[in-house]
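Q: What would this chain look like folded?
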Amino acid sequence: MNCILLLLTAVGMVVTLPSHDPAKPATQPVVVLELFTSQGCSSCPPADQALHDITKKAALAGQAVYSLSFHVDYWNRLGWQDPFSSRQFTDRQRQYDRALKTQTYTPQLVVNGRQNVVGGQKTTIEHAIQAIQKQPASAFIGVDGRLSRNARQVTVTYTLSAAGPYRLNVALVQKETRTAVKNGENGGRTLVSTNVVRQFKTTEQPGTSGSVALPMPDGLQPDQTAVLVYVQRNDTGQVVGAKLL
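A: My prediction, written as structure tokens:
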């Protein structure tokens, strides 16, 4: 009899043990705004300000709207070397322009990888955001992650709620920059930018979990930075999930 009771107790313990499988991150509509801009472009500061305003408003409302400022390098030949510019970011813009069948220009805003908007057109941008927020959560995947940092690099460990024909982007951003521009179209102005991309990496076929390491730019402190992880479909470029860490 005692053996039977012990066996039942053991079985009960096994049945009630909690699962160690991690919960899948929840899905929700997300918006990623990718602004292609330059300190050498006189039309860009209003777009930089609009991006700041839209991002701040969304954050205060608890909305999943995330912004990135990619500084392109093709304005550098016109009198001012943008310190945040990169050929990598110019190449990313041109990939979008081929996919969206549009010209390359600044300021250009790409909304969730699929819509081209002139940067600074706040009403148009806000309408695009609202349309995405009305989409069902089932159109997106959940993204979660955590950071580990040291003086030399940031490592992102991520989890996706589903596998698919996706690519995963990790952007290390400087939350705010202030630059006294001495030459070029914005010569004599101090320009302020939000969420300036300092490091960027794309992983093809990321699976449902993994890790990505990015070098930490010299002189940046952890509290000056954030990391955005976002997922795009391989076939259309549509952003289907994002998480700010």
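The chain has one domain: 31-244.
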